[in-house]
């Protein structure tokens, strides 16, 4: 038997195009061929289960081998095999509607996945790395003859009688000169480790040494020898494919380590996803301890389709705020091979997105209710996800309002509702606003914190990267008439302005004089001096930073670009306490003495908020030494 023919596409020069275009992604040839081998193995298993195949199944395994000298890579399976007719039908007729369409589309395509999936070029990806491909196959069907197919990447092929004596298929790639890098254990091993790690049929690649028991030594102790064994590179039954009821905590933790062997920490908790309607999706998402940038980059969520690794670029499929999670999502319903814009519009993708969001919110709520203490302990690690989610996703926020926590400087945690109840009667100003006070840096803002605490007020800690935005969120959604102010946004009596008014002990002339002295002593463009009536026990001078302007600037920073507000200078206010005895003394001192004291009081205010640095700090120290 010998037959020559022509592969049925319209364009003669399609392979050079595929080869050239797909070059950057060419390693996926192995994913495609190994997946085909796995599919063929699963098909024979299914036929056997259905009673349509009555022979011996044998050990279903896929072998990947390479031969450096012969420059070949061979993928072998014991699957259903193909007759010559089937090879012609399945391999020769490329499953896309027309080469013309392909030629038009490939120009817009973004990556190899897109082309391969869209046009059913799986098998043909072999030609990205091979200049000749052979198939040796024997079908499972009774009386089938082995067939051999060979093709050099042009559109002509040749079919002859084959040599295979056992059911299954060998695909033999004659690796081209540009792709010799693939003829190495390291390179092929890496690719398999990336794509085939959790395939449902064992994949064997090379050998490894394993220590095995071998009788006893003279003292009766067990002896071990190193034996060369086949290397099965995959776990065919990964945790996410099992029923949640089958798994214990240890199993989830073990799977986490399997996924991310380099991770130092254990995950905080996890969510097992499992839906089959209206789309198919399984997976396990882990909440990690807060990671550094590098680990976030490395330990990303991995996307699989029927246990074949597809990508760890899960943008569009996973809601953005959950991209910081880790783990696996497996769904045959995600259109993996289409362009970005299509993916965003795809209704399945939207449903999947919503489903994941809902599942995550429900799970968090469940943990919160079942073990509030544990949840509070984990808050520092998970609050970033939750706040990000609340800020970016209304549906999530609705649910998260029940378990989102506020922590104060004493380390106590409150839900949004609880906190409102806690402070609403004390921290209310003359206009009925409920003022939430917060610190973004407990050590730096210590002076401000203790002065508001002296008034009986509570101080929240909002020191995360999203907390400026979160403060704005709480104002809008946390309850009626809430205002959030950082403790250093103003002097304490103005942070929460009550009805009672403190009288100013200075005459109008004295106020003008005090202003003049301080303005001269301070001589800074970015600081406005105000003489005000505070309690005599308050500090003589405070430097505060307006909440609104500071927040706008902070937001401009976290929003990426600086924007309009980002370009403005800081807007400090210097409040001189007209009721403090020192101020009276300054007014009554000689000009020189008064200015020196004013400067000293101002520097102390700067010092207490960490703003006194450089030459100013040096001269402050010098002046202080002189004064004592
Ligand atoms: P796809 O896998 O997307 O259908 P491919 O081009 O990879 O596209 O393969 C085309 C067809 O060739 C497969 O659907 C299958 O019927 C057949 N085939 C490929 N490889 C094998 C194999 N190792 N054993 C049996 N059949 C195979």
From TrEMBL:
ATP binds at residues 32, 36, 77, 82, 97-98, 169, 340. GO terms for molecular function: ATP binding; ATP hydrolysis activity; ATP-dependent protein folding chaperone; unfolded protein binding. The keyword Heme does not apply. InterPro entries: HATPase_C_sf (IPR036890), HATPase_dom (IPR003594), HSP90_C (IPR037196), Hsp90_fam (IPR001404), Hsp90_N (IPR020575), Ribosomal_Su5_D2-typ_SF (IPR020568). Keywords: ATP-binding, Chaperone, Cytoplasm, Nucleotide-binding, Stress response. The keyword Translocase does not apply. SMART domains: HATPase_c. Residues 25-179 form the Histidine kinase/HSP90-like ATPase domain. SUPFAM superfamilies: ATPase domain of HSP90 chaperone/DNA topoisomerase II/histidine kinase, Ribosomal protein S5 domain 2-like. It comes from the Bacteria. Belongs to the heat shock protein 90 family. This is Chaperone protein HtpG. It comes from Sphingobacterium psychroaquaticum. The lineage of its organism: Bacteria, Pseudomonadati, Bacteroidota, Sphingobacteriia, Sphingobacteriales.
